[in-house]
Design a protein that fits this description.
With 324 residues, this protein is of the alpha/beta class. The chain is built from ten helices and 15 strands. 29% of the residues lie in helices and 26% in strands. The strands form three sheets. Strands 3, 4, 5, 6, 7, 14 and 15 form a seven-stranded mixed sheet that branches. The protein has a six-stranded parallel sheet with strand order 10-9-8-11-12-13, sandwiched between helices. Helix 3 crosses helix 4 and helix 3 packs across helix 9. Bound molecules: NADP nicotinamide-adenine-dinucleotide phosphate.
Length: 324
């Protein structure tokens, strides 16, 4: 089968399409024939070798995907060949035509959700759910600022928030991104490349500020977020790509809380809570993954360049085969 193989850490050109042996599931493993692969920013951090925990080389990247169960190990109970599924993890990597996964890292994909949409489920929706509800405990009637709402996690956060009766404000740096934020149900959209946007958001809330900020670029925004934060506000650091000078006193005046989070740290109970909420939301149509761009598997390097360099407008996916 075809798979992307990384033999050395480096720039996007280390993503090479190769011919590798198709894995065979044993025990509680399933083999998924992949219809679409989700590309996440973390895939680029791992590829470049700058992430705290790196996979041994060589490796095939990716954990998000959607497709059909091809075959199962003898201990698999929940799935059978032909079932439509999405993955939240993979033993062999999802940038491939087939991927091996533990049964627990596979979930049913409702019939109304395409493979391309399914590839954009786990990392974005689980991260947004964990940030909003398991960390910030956001509640109906509160106001949330999703600071960086035009990408995978941000659009998922808008959808979760609106479904829960939370007022959602989003930011993007393009007209297309702002429109997408509004189309996904946000009450207002602002431009984070505009220096005055946090003052404008404070004004939008009538001077009260927002109860929760889901922060996608903390190294740029964490200090100035306090301008638009309400008393007793909570900030969840979801993304950060560097460091900043920060005045801790800012947290005192507002009795504010800052939460860090990594999707890798959820408990089993939290994982199951997310998985159940995702299935319900996808099935009833209240969660709708937004696909921005598709690339062939062979063009994974272009997809990696795109996710870091371009303005976001939903998810970037890779398509390994065309015979689904
Ligand atoms: P994405 O699809 O590439 O979207 C990136 C988002 O960041 C876009 O909405 C982009 O807006 C926005 N952004 C760019 N500059 C910004 C700024 N100055 N202020 C605020 N937002 C800004 O990425 P994603 O999948 O949504 O992930 C978002 C971040 O969360 C990434 O850093 C990712 O690594 C991180 N993440 C963390 C976890 C975790 O477990 N902690 C899990 C998943 C993702 P424009 O393009 O419109 O400027």
């Amino acid at each position: 089968m075809k798979a992307i193989v990384i033999r050395e850490f480096g720039g996007p050109d280390v993503l090479k399409l190769d011919e590798v042996e198709r894995p065979v599931p044993t025990g509680a493993q399933v083999l998924v024939k992949i219809g679409a692969v989700g590309v996440n920013p973390v895939d680029t951090y791992l590829r470049s070798g700058v992430y705290p925990k790196l996979p041994p080389l060589p490796y095939t990247p990716g954990k998000d995907s959607a497709g059909v169960i091809e075959s199962v190990g003898s201990d698999v109970r929940e799935f059978k060949p032909g079932d439509r599924v999405y993955t939240s993890g993979s033993l062999t990597g999802t940038y491939a035509e087939y991927a091996l996964a533990d049964e627990k890292d596979v979930a049913p994909l409702p019939d109304n959700v395409t493979f391309e949409q399914g590839a954009g489920i786990w990392t974005p929706y689980a991260t947004a759910f964990r940030a909003l509800f398991q960390k910030a405990s956001a509640k109906a009637g509160e106001t949330v600022l999703i600071h960086g709402a035009s990408g995978g996690v941000g659009l998922a956060a808008i959808q979760w928030a609106k479904n829960a009766g939370i007022n959602a404000i989003g930011t993007a740096s393009s007209a297309e991104g702002k429109q997408l934020i509004l189309d996904n149900g946000a009450d207002a959209a602002f431009d984070h490349s505009d220096e005055g946007h946090l003052d404008a958001i404070l004004e939008y809330t009538g001077g009260k500020g927002v109860d929760v900020i889901i922060e996608m670029l903390a190294n740029v925004n964490l200090e100035r977020d306090f301008k638009a934060l309400a008393m007793f506000g909570r900030i969840v650091v979801v993304g950060s790509r560097g460091s900043l000078e920060f005045s801790p006193r800012l947290t005192m005046g507002k009795d504010a809380s800052i939460f860090g989070m990594s999707l890798f740290n959820y408990s089993e109970a939290e994982r199951l809570e997310i998985r159940d909420a995702v299935f319900k939301g996808l099935s009833d149509g209240s969660l709708k993954p937004v696909v921005a761009k598709r690339f062939a598997l062979a063009d994974a390097s272009a997809a990696h360049e795109e996710i870091i360099a371009s303005k976001a407008a939903g998810k970037i996916v890779l398509i390994p085969t065309t015979d689904h």
